[in-house]
Amino acid sequence: MRIGLLTSGGDAPGMNATIRAVVRAAIHNGDTVFGIYDGYRGLVEGKIVEFTRKNVSEILNKGGTILGTARLPEFTYEAVRRLAVEQLKKHDIESLICLGGDGTYSGAIRLHEMGIKTIGVPCTIDNDIASTDFTIGFSTALSTACDAIDKLRDTSSSHQRCSIIEVMGRHCGDLALYSGICCGAEYIITNETGLDKNKLLNDLKQTRLAGRRHAIVVISENMTDVHQLAKEVEAFTGYECRATILGYVQRGGTPTPEDRLLAARLGKYAVDLLKEGVTGVAVGVKDNKLVSTPIEQALAMQNEPNVELFDVVNKIS
Ligand code: ADP
């Protein structure tokens, strides 16, 4: 087989570990792998280079992606995708492994429909792909968020402050939910819980009156303007209140062992599936078992609220 490999959309720690796994597994099978730089944009522009084991040495523990990533909104046009298919044909590449999130999956399924054998590998810090329990990058982002929230707790406690911390997640509350539990946040606000501002303000006032030196509120991005919310908390509760948006630091850093392990398993699995003739699927893990799901189905699946973890929040926060 001649396999193309690209990373697309937002970068995620563990993409490099996945690239390494794909290249090594394919070469082990006697296949040839081509690294495609800068996602679908680089594919259309023909930035395609044959990869050997040497190309992937010393990258296992590095954040980001050595292939680079880019966004190409025009990839929704068939005429643009046809250019991509032509580039693949020119290099005699019949299969493509696409690392990224749901946008990347949408591009992959369109290419599959145009006769390219494609496999999607879930690489995003948001954990927002329902066809897998965990995406590659989530564990590292969680670890980074926890580290930051622990540090903010130290200063909040010293200054008797309320800290509002906004974490990433696009439309998925997992980073807020998991980091909030791990860091003992008093309040966790996600798109699943919704933001009941009156309740939050009243609860925080009670917390202050009860003599708590600090309060931590972890909130998903896109819920509200957190700086404005901090002003309202200050005015209503008497707590000094600061909002911190963690932002892009959550995207970087050396991948955790969990992300490296997932990258190794899913990268090799993607190559195995191509070898078996399976295409148009997204790989993942469910209950720690490898699974593959047709990409169309993976894109249509909804993330279910994690009832068990929300119950933990209700009982121990
Ligand atoms: P992610 O993969 O992290 O969700 P994006 O949503 O930015 O990131 O998508 C990455 C790229 O995938 C886009 O820049 C575009 O090239 C391609 N893409 C996204 N949606 C589609 C679509 N509906 N059809 C074809 N290509 C798409």
Explain how this protein is built.
The protein has 317 residues and is of the alpha/beta class. Helices cover 44% and strands 19% of the residues. The protein has eleven helices and eleven strands. The chain has helices spanning 15-28, 39-45, 78-90, 102-113, 138-159, 174-182, 197-209, 226-237, 257-276, 295-300, 307-316, and strands spanning 2-7, 32-36, 48-51, 95-100, 117-122, 161-167, 187-189, 215-220, 240-245, 281-286, 289-294. The strands form two sheets. The protein has a seven-stranded mixed beta sheet, sandwiched between helices. Strand 10 (281-286) and strand 11 form a beta hairpin. Helix 7 crosses helix 8 (226-237). The N and C termini lie far apart (53 Å). Residues 8-10, 40, 71-73, 75-76, 100-104, 106-107, 110, 124 line the site of adenosine-5'-diphosphate.
Secondary-structure blueprint:
Elements: E1 2-7, H1 15-28, E2 32-36, H2 39-45, E3 48-51, H3 78-90, E4 95-100, H4 102-113, E5 117-122, H5 138-159, E6 161-167, H6 174-182, E7 187-189, H7 197-209, E8 215-220, H8 226-237, E9 240-245, H9 257-276, E10 281-286, E11 289-294, H10 295-300, H11 307-316
Parallel strand pairs: 1-2, 1-4, 4-5, 5-10, 6-8, 6-9, 7-8
Antiparallel strand pairs: 2-3, 10-11
Helix pairs in contact: 1-9, 2-3, 5-6, 7-8
The structure holds adenosine-5'-diphosphate.
